[in-house]
Amino acid sequence: MARRLNVAVCQTGPIARAESRADVVARLIALLETAAAGGAELAVFPEMALTTFFPRWDLTDPDEIRAFYEREMPGPDTAPLFAAARRLKVGFALGYCESVVEDGRERRFNTMVLAGRDGAVIGRYRKMHVPGSEAPEEGVTVHLERRYFEPGNLGFPVFSFEGVRIGMAICNDRRWPETYRMLCLNGAEMVLIGYNTPLLLTETPRLAHLRMFHNHLPMQAGAYQNTVWIAAAAKAGVEEGQALIGGSCIIAPSGEIVALANSLGDEVIVHRADLAMNEDCAKAGFDFARYRRPDEYALIAQAAGPRRPATAG
Ligand code: CDT
């Protein structure tokens, strides 16, 4: 029998700092209802979908910072979203700020949780490639994710969702080929991605016209080179004075964008993903067992390889 998964991307418009969790969750439930009406079985929401993208601010008040994190998932504020998943029979992946006690101390991660069609948690992923800095730098767009989050410590896990192998990635992760290759080697058939990407970066004005190209390029390449489906949800629009790109999309294992958002607001796109395409595309050149040369790739595994190693000759 043909294996297919109806997947929805639930893009959100901006989320204001003053917006309550209850209001945001109500917005997400409305999106999930639209996804369900479109026949979706699984939906993906953006990175940090419950709050504004606060790493754009140089915050120092611990209470102010603490307010952006969830200590439970589901917790009292987010339980209605899990209940909606159960009612609608639509699973989801949701990006949020996670605070957890591990190794006897509080740890903070930029996380995405995967819930099943019964509203139960299946698993979670913690962002590996945490961009930005710990303190503002002269002439550089303020992006302090490295102050507010540790790099993920769960690897690149793959979970079974209704028999489909699902991986997750968060924003900057999507720019790195290692993300897709690790997920693919772990067996992913579909990768769910959430992002918050500034439209403009002060430090690279000559690349400003390429922001959307550089959004789609690595995801299309990641899908193609690893023969996986990708469903990617932006938080878009002008959020607290900062413009975030949209461009939420669903990408086939051929690298083609098969569905694309056409707004910077709350919007749902749905596609019926044919999981036989993964194999068909793999046959067209990416037969890993036959052609890959892992024995020749040792440099990739080094903890911190040089960017441009000197080559002999
Ligand atoms: N949220 C996130 O990871 N955003 C990054 C921009 C970093 S700018 C220092 C991205 O890759 O879109």
UniProtKB/TrEMBL annotation:
GO terms for molecular function: hydrolase activity, acting on carbon-nitrogen (but not peptide) bonds, in linear amides. InterPro entries: Aliph_Amidase/BUP, C-N_Hydrolase, C-N_Hydrolase_sf. The keyword Cytoplasm does not apply. Keywords: Hydrolase. Residues 5-277 form the CN hydrolase domain. The keyword rRNA-binding does not apply. SUPFAM superfamilies: Carbon-nitrogen hydrolase (SSF56317). It comes from the Bacteria. It holds the Pfam family CN_hydrolase. This is Putative amidohydrolase.
